[in-house]
Structure formats: C-alpha cells, structure tokens
Design brief:
- The protein is mainly α.
- The chain has a domain of 247 residues.
- Helix content is 82%, strand content 0%.
- The longest helix has 41 residues.
- The protein is globular and about 65 Å long.
- The two termini are 30 Å apart.
- 36% of the residues are buried.
Length: 390
Amino acid sequence: MLFLSGSGALTAFTSSAGLAALGLISFAGNTSDAEEVQVLFSLATTFGLIFLLLIPSIILAAIRLLGKPLPDLNYPWFLRVSGIAFCLVPVFILVGFLIMRTPPAAAFILPWFQLAVVAIPIWWVVELGRQGLPPLPSERGWGLFSLTVTLAMPAIIIIEMLLVAGIVAGIFVYIGITYPDISQQVLRTLERLGNSSSMDRETVLRILRPYLSQPGVIYSLLAITAGAVPLLEEFFKPLALWFLAGKKLTPHEGFVGGMICGAAFALLESLGAMGNPGTDSWPIVAVGRIGTGILHISASGMVGWGLAQAWTEGRYLRLAAAYLLAVGFHAIWNMTALVAGLKELAQFSPVLIKQFEGFMLVSPGILVFLAGSMVIWVVRTNQELRTPQY
C-alpha cells in the first residue's frame, strides 16, 4: 500500500505541477486560447486533488510498518458537514456558470468550482450510506480508495479502450470485406477529419452526418454504452475489495467498501468529463455528473455487499443478483443519458427523430428519478444493515 499510494501520489504531484506550469506559460505567452489554458488547469487541479487524497493512505501504511497504533479518521460530524456543503452545490454551479462566461477568469477559477461540484455530492452520498454503521478501519477505507485510483481505474480505462478498439477494428474489417466502396468512404471521412483546420462541433457533425443517419451506427453506440461498458465497470470497480477476500467481510463492510470504490471511480471519471465543456452546457454537465456519481457509488455498494455475502456466507446467487442489478441500473442510466445527449444530433439523423423522439423528451426526468431512487436505496440499505441481524 505504501508503494502503490506513494507512486500514485508522486505521479499525481508531478503531473499537477507540470500541467499548472504549462498553463501559466501558455497564458503568459499567449500561445493558446483561454479554453486550452482552462483544460490544463482543470487537469492540474484534478491531479492535485488525487495527490492530497492519497496522502492518508501513505501515512497510515507508514504507521503500520512502524508498528504504531493506527489513528481513527472516522468522525461522526462528517455527515452533517457534507450535508451542509451539498446544499451549497447549486450555488457553486450558478457561480461557476457565471465565471465561465468570462474566459480569462474561468481558466484559473472554474477548476476549483468543478472540484467542489463533483467531490461534495460524492462525499455526501458515501457518508449517507455509512452513517450509524460500525466504521471501516481507517487503513482499510483509505486503502480501498487508493487501490481503486492506482489499480482499478487504470485497468478499466485500458480494458475499455481495447474493447472499443477491437469493436471498431472488427467493423472496419467487416466493411472492408463486404462493402469495399463504403470502406473507402470511411477512410476519406477520417482524412477529412484529420485535415480539417476547424475542429469545432459543427464541423465534426457535418462531416459525420452520413453515418449518424445509419441505424447500425446508433444501435452499435447504444450497445457499447449501455451493454459492454456497464458489464465491465461494475465488475472491475470493486476490484480493490478482492484484496480483502480472506478477511471475512461483514455485509456492512462490503457495502461501505464498495461505495468507497465507486466514489473513487466517480471522482476521477467526473472530473475528467468536466475538463472542457461548452459555456452553455457546463451547468447541465455539472448536474449530470452529480447523478453519475450517485450511480457509481450505489452500484458498487450493491456489488460490494454481494461480494461480502458470497465470501462469508457462500451466497453466490445473491452476488450474481447484486451484480446484475448494478449492471441493470448502470445500463438504463447510460442509455438514457446517451439518448438525452443525442438530442442535438437528431437534426442529422432520421433514426433518432423517428424512434427516440419521445424518449428524448422524458429522458431528463428519467435520470432524476433514477438518481433519487438510488439515493433512497442507499438510505434503506443503510437502515437494514443497522438491524441486529447484521
């Protein structure tokens, strides 16, 4: 743990410092526009936060190696403070939106608001799920977070990249053999994208318009986003819990440990997604990432609870049910979010207009309902695990 957390912290610190320096140089020399500088500072603050969050694991591992008693870093007032902070998140979103309309200020100030908008809801949901339960030992809780950041998250990224690359390669091979003319057209499209001097959203959509009108493209995108991705992520997100497989975890330890793994994943994913949204879309993306964080925490909590039940009581069917339920929630969320995001593409695709128009209209409401349902599930599960039978 000391090696993994230390290596991760060193990498995060050097990355944060390097990106911040590059952003300052670019801003001072006017070598890039304000949006590019903002991306650099967003990445710098993200790596800086990772560095800070890995420090507790380093300290606790060092204390354990020295044979000293470990301090308890679980405090009962965390829930109250996180709840108050969560109530301020709408204010942070509004202020962040106003700041983003002035690009020079946004490049330096907005990344800090992004950290607050992403991290505070994640913290609150975790505290909501573990309130009143016997706390995980500090070394174990921070260790799960560190292992997710340093091992599980990179593994998920690599596997998803390989999956997408394999699917794309397979499609290209199939098209090249079956439809040589279309294969040449795809190559010309890629060449146009590579040679385009203006890579704004409108230019890309105009070039991709012929493909967005094809049903196979839309359905393939849905299959990957709402099928393959949830299966992979819900399997690998609680990867850090497998290091505790021989520790006879109780159901509440599996539940809370799973939520910590999901929180670490959600934190990195959401901060990466908010790196460079458009001015008008920033509040929408910010609100969406709150829901996504709730999804990852609750789904990983389900799987963690199932793992603990399987390891300690041999209830592997319950583990399978928990995993499939987490995948189902994740799939519905991804499909709904994708359809909601495709709304602006509907003008280019008759398929979207014909088959998904009604779904697009109700998709924001479905996402709100799902997020609320998952918060309720976390609270109810917490109450159940506090009963004497557990």
